[in-house]
Design a protein that fits this description.
Number of domains: 1
Strand content: 5-15%
Shape: globular
Largest sheet: 4 strands, mixed
Bound molecules: zinc ion
Distance between the termini: 41 Å
Strand order of the largest sheet: 1-6-3-2
Number of helices: 12
Length: about 260
């Protein structure tokens, strides 16, 4: 089955096993609508002084953005990447405050915030696509390697969840070229700010520096790295992790802007 098959299947998603506390908390009082990336860039983000976010514990950066998989979705909450509007302003303010005095501010710290959020959430999408690919390998049918099993394992075994979060932040690091922005005709690399920020996130999230091009398979397919090496199309996998998946004119991953009630 592919994305469309899963979407058309319209499975009932609200199985307690598959809903994490992070997801429940994220959607409290949330209103959202689908949005294109260009409109995300143009959006006027609310400027609230007292952001009530603590990214050092619990769900890390996933309190600002969240990924709903196509395996488990329902009509009122379709699959895709959800981004909180005041989460973007929280992050851009935080980045602006960290920028060293000698380094000019980027034209808009909003770009840095959006790219950081999208690359992390695309990590979750990539993991789901990887399991979908394995589900479709007939020879593996008896191994019961499914996204559903993986999702359940994340809840019962915190290490599995930590590994996925570390992988998602590694995906941000892996594509650090997107944090190089031109300011007054000079290219400035803002990635060090993002790196520092990711190291302040909870266990798992902050473990991304342990990951490399050689061991990332261990982090996405736990304890079965042989399957990753033998049965996964690496080129396709890396494409799914790219910013293009969410930002090109006809994206594969829908984006939703979540307006938080003040
Ligand atoms: Zn995450």
């Amino acid at each position: 089955m592919n994305i469309d098959d899963w979407v058309n299947e319209r499975r009932e998603v609200d199985l307690p096993l598959n809903r994490t506390q992070c997801e429940v908390d994220f959607f409290v009082n949330a209103r959202f609508h689908q949005i294109r990336y260009d409109d995300l860039l143009r959006h006027h983000y609310p400027n609230r002084r007292n952001h009530n976010y603590n990214l050092a514990v619990g769900c890390g950066i996933d309190v600002l953005a969240f990924y709903i998989p196509f395996h488990f979705h329902s009509a009122p909450r379709p699959w895709g990447i959800y981004i909180k509007d005041d989460g973007v302003s929280y992050l851009s303010q935080r980045f602006s405050q960290t920028v060293h005095q000698r380094i000019p501010l980027p034209p808009s710290a909003t770009n840095l915030a959006l790219i950081n959020l999208l690359l992390h959430e695309l990590g979750h999408f990539g993991v789901e696509m990887l399991y979908t690919e394995l589900e479709n390998v007939p020879a593996l049918a008896q191994n019961n390697i499914t996204y559903e099993n993986h999702a359940n394992e994340k809840i019962t075994n915190p290490q599995v969840e930590h590994n996925e979060e570390a992988f998602c932040n590694w995906n941000v690091k892996r594509q650090s070229k997107f944090f190089k922005l031109e300011v007054e005709n000079v290219e400035i690399d803002y990635y060090p700010i993002i790196d520092e920020f990711m190291r302040t996130q909870p266990l798992g999230y902050r473990d991304f520096p342990e990951i490399s091009n050689l061991n990332y398979g261990n982090y996405v397919i736990n304890n079965q790295v042989n399957l990753f090496h033998n049965d996964v199309n690496k080129t396709k996998f890396r494409r799914h992790l790219g910013l293009d998946m969410a930002t090109r004119p006809y994206p594969k991953v829908p984006i939703y802007l979540v307006q938080s009630l003040p």
